Amino acid sequence: MENPLIKAEMVEATEFPKLADRHGVHGVPHTTINDGQANVVGAVPEANLLAEIQRALG
Amino acid sequence: MPELLNAEIKKQVSDLFAELKDPVEIIFFGSEEKCTYCADTRHLAEELASLSEKLNLTVYDLQADAESASRFKVDKVPTLILAARDGEVTTDLGVHFAGIPAGHEFSSLIQSLVLVSNRDSGLSPQTREFLRGLKDPVHMQVFVTPT
């Protein structure tokens, strides 16, 4: 919502098992950024997610 | 098809929808091909759209409306996009739900509808500043299960 370059997609893992497998999803929520450039398992506080976005873009 | 939302849930959701400010276009993509949850997801979107005048639903088919799918970068069905609508202009703010938003994700869907309607992410000023400065695409995918 803050930048047109950003897309946030909920993915229901059981309906898209191939995609979930490709990202090694075992526990949920599991967040992947830019197709695996960064991954976070569990709920992510805002600041941590920013750090992961930076890591993914780095 | 029987209703997915019972009277009590509809009442709760309607109360939350009372704070909707600006119109939201709920964009649904389904498919005639094998899609276990397309019918339920579309039905859910129809029921939600009926609960507020601020909400409108547009229905597309992933194959038949391939041009729209490409425009909204949709490659999964069912997908729901919560887009901002201002007059004739619909803007995809990047809020997508792939698969049926059931269980916990139903709450996420309702909360997201409120955020999009208010055109306010609710993020901290520091976060907003950082995000607005981004020059490269960021695609976050949050995997969930319907529990």
Overall description:
The complex is a heterodimer of chains A (58) and B (147). With 58 residues, chain A is an alpha+beta fold. Chain A has two helices and three strands, in the order βαββα. Chain A has one domain (17-57). In chain A, strands 2-3 form a two-stranded antiparallel ribbon. With 147 residues, chain B is an alpha+beta fold. Chain B has a single domain, classed as 3-Layer(aba) Sandwich (Glutaredoxin). Helices cover 35% and strands 27% of the residues of chain B. Chain B is globular, with a radius of gyration of 15 Å.
- Helices of chain A, by number, come to 2
Query: At CATH's second level, what is the architecture of chain B?
Result: 3-Layer(aba) Sandwich
How far the N terminus sits from the C terminus of chain B, by CA atoms, comes to 23 Å
Determine the strand fraction of chain B and express it as a percent band: 25-35%
Mean pLDDT of chain B: 96
Low-confidence stretches of chain B: none
Low confidence ranges of chain A? none
How much is the radius of gyration of chain A in Å?
12 Å
CATH evolutionary superfamily of chain B: Glutaredoxin
**CATH fold node name of chain B:** Glutaredoxin
- Order of strands across the main sheet of chain A: 2-3
- The 3D shape of chain A can be described as globular
Major pleated sheet of chain B: 4 strands, mixed
Tell me the number of strands of chain A.
3
Largest beta sheet: strand ordering of chain B: 2-1-3-4
Q: How many helical stretches of chain B?
A: 5
Helical fraction of chain B equals 25-40%
* Total discrete domains of chain B: 1
Oligomer: heterodimer
Beta-strand content estimate of chain A: 25-35%
> Could you say which overall geometry of chain B the principal axes of the C-alpha atoms support?
globular
